[in-house]
Design a protein that fits this description.
The complex is a heterodimer of chains A (about 230) and B (about 260). Chain A is α/β, with parallel strands linked by helices. Chain A has one domain: Alpha-Beta Barrel (TIM Barrel). Chain A contains eleven helices and eight strands. In chain A, strands 1-2-3-4-5-6-7-8 form an eight-stranded parallel beta barrel, surrounded by six helices. Chain B is globular. In chain B, helix 4 packs parallel to helix 6. The longest helix of chain B has 15 residues. In chain B, helix 10 links the parallel strand 7 and strand 8. In chain B, about 45% of the residues are buried. Chain B is built from twelve helices and eight strands. Helix content of chain B is about 40%, strand content about 15%. The chains are: A alpha/beta (about 230), B alpha/beta (about 260). Chains A and B meet through helix 2, helix 3, helix 4, helix 5 and helix 7 of A and helix 2, helix 4, helix 6 and helix 8 of B.
């Protein structure tokens, strides 16, 4: 079985909190300005932001975050690639993203091509396992493993179907089988859920909703979440 | 549904960027049977402004598809591509009496301020038509997302298309939905086409789906005139093409004309 030699700059030494931004570009600019300048934060250009502003939105987010940090930060482009693994990755890399996402539901050819191209563009590849019943089955079919696997419960799923759970039990199993692949967990929004993500071995926890609902409290919310990361 | 049953459509996907769009779109023959699609790569690079740009390049009654490939957050996806439905500016504050001209101006100013996207009509001739006429959602997305997407499309008055790329049995997906979509797309992805040639478009599913649901079926992933013919022969209502169009725009017009000749 393939073992992942992880080249991601995030590394496994520290946990990270990923905040997805989905509001209008002016509001996002303001919100990024409110964030604490912490290496432990990962900034995500959420899918609605990419839909609305395209790669220009990613580039802007990247510039603002770098300005805030005083050095290049880590920005994820949530492309949710489903086809044409190559073109979208190139566009995201050109916009300065450090990582891009591909759907685990996409054809295997697309995921493989996506992972390959991310490596060629020197950005991290994330495979989003939303609605994938057995992430293992997808990973098994790939020629090269992604840098990061995202276990994800979608927003519509969460709001309309209360029975669906994030498969946190998969974290240790994936890590056991594939070694150093980083695991990110998305779909839990409360501090409680984030604690549980990290407790179960996640490297990255993704949140967005509280920030989306209360943009003016961005700073305090981020601090609250950062306290959970040792 | 805006599209008509028992009519055949050729859907032309614009993927290469706005320059390509500028070359291709003027060459297309004017016809109700030609649909224009803002492709996913274009949308991801330029955002939804691509829809408005393409809208401005085609005639105002051209049917425009936004291939947004929604996988989550269906309500936001639909509201973005459908364009804004603007309420007209009101002249008199509700319940006001003895209104002076000054009051009218003041009231209009307030309304413009609270809805900054409204612009005076003379600067925006295409305002009402800014959005797309249809949008796509992934068949592999969670059932909740697909259902919500179809509901939202209905509310916004646009057609919902479910893209069955990488779905083995589209009927199983349709069965789980509360309401069927307007269009089902049978799709072989570009990466699949290039890297594993043995994957075929399952033409037999067209009749299967149409037999069970009152929907139109689109076929995407073929890129020669032969494949277009084969899809229509197998009862597809819409055929989506892109490769030829991506390469040379003169080919586009030829294929579109041939298509119109054939159905005409």
């Amino acid at each position: 079985m393939l073992k992942c030699v992880n080249m991601s700059i995030l590394g496994r030494k520290s946990k990270h909190l990923q905040i997805a931004f989905n509001r209008t570009i002016d509001e996002v600019s303001h919100m990024v300005g409110l964030l604490p300048a912490s290496d432990k934060l990962v900034i995500e250009a959420g899918t609605p932001l990419v839909w609305r502003y395209g790669s220009e939105g990613i580039a802007k987010l990247n510039a603002w975050w770098a300005q805030k940090l005083g050095k290049p930060g880590y920005v994820v482009a949530d492309l949710k690639t489903m086809d044409r693994g190559m073109r979208e990755v190139e566009a995201a890399a050109r916009a300065g993203a450090s990582a891009a996402t591909c759907l685990g539901l996409a054809p295997v050819e697309t995921i493989s091509e996506f992972v390959k191209n991310c490596a060629a563009q020197k950005i991290d590849s994330m495979v989003d396992m939303m609605n994938v019943p057995f992430p293992f089955e997808v990973l098994q079919k790939l020629k090269k493993l992604p840098d990061i696997v995202v276990l994800h419960r979608g927003v519509d799923e969460r709001l309309r179907n209360h029975e669906k759970q994030i498969p946190l039990d998969q974290i240790t199993r994936i890590r056991g089988a594939y070694g150093n692949v980083l695991i990110s967990v998305a779909g839990g929004e409360t501090t409680r859920e984030v604690v549980s993500d990290f407790f179960n071995g996640a490297d990255i926890a993704v949140v967005w909703q509280t920030f989306y609902e209360k943009p003016e409290e961005t700073a305090s919310l981020a601090m609250d979440f950062l306290k959970l990361i040792k | 549904m805006i599209l008509q049953k028992r009519k055949k459509y050729l859907q032309i996907a614009i993927n290469g960027g706005l320059n390509d769009a500028r070359q291709i779109l003027p060459l297309l023959p004017a016809s109700d049977n030609i649909i224009v699609e803002a492709g996913t790569p274009l949308l991801k690079e330029l955002g939804i402004s691509a829809i408005a740009e393409i809208r401005a390049m085609v005639s105002s009654n051209t049917y425009l598809v936004a291939d947004i490939k929604c996988a989550d957050l269906a309500d936001r996806a639909v509201s973005m591509v459908a364009g804004k439905k603007t309420r007209p500016i009101e002249l008199v504050p509700p319940g006001a009496t003895n209104v002076t001209l000054n009051d009218v101006l003041q009231f209009a100013k307030e309304q413009f301020k609270s809805r900054p996207y409204i612009q005076p009509l003379w600067t925006q001739p295409y305002q009402k038509l800014r959005g797309a006429n249809a949008a796509t959602v992934l068949g592999v997305a969670p059932v909740e997302t697909i259902s919500l997407f179809i509901e939202e499309c209905k509310k916004s008055g646009i057609d919902a298309m479910v893209d069955m790329m990488n779905v083995e049995t589209p009927l199983a997906v349709l069965k789980k939905l509360k309401n069927p979509p307007d269009v089902v797309i049978l799709h072989r992805g570009v990466d699949e086409t290039e890297f594993s040639r043995e994957k075929q478009i399952p033409y037999y599913q067209i009749k299967q789906i149409k037999g069970n649901y009152d929907v139109l079926v689109a076929v995407a992933g073929g890129d020669t005139i032969r494949e277009v013919q084969r899809a229509f022969f197998n009862d597809a209502d819409i055929v989506v093409v892109w490769k030829n169009f991506f390469q040379a725009s003169s080919e586009t017009a030829r294929l579109a004309r041939e298509f119109l000749k054939e159905i005409g």
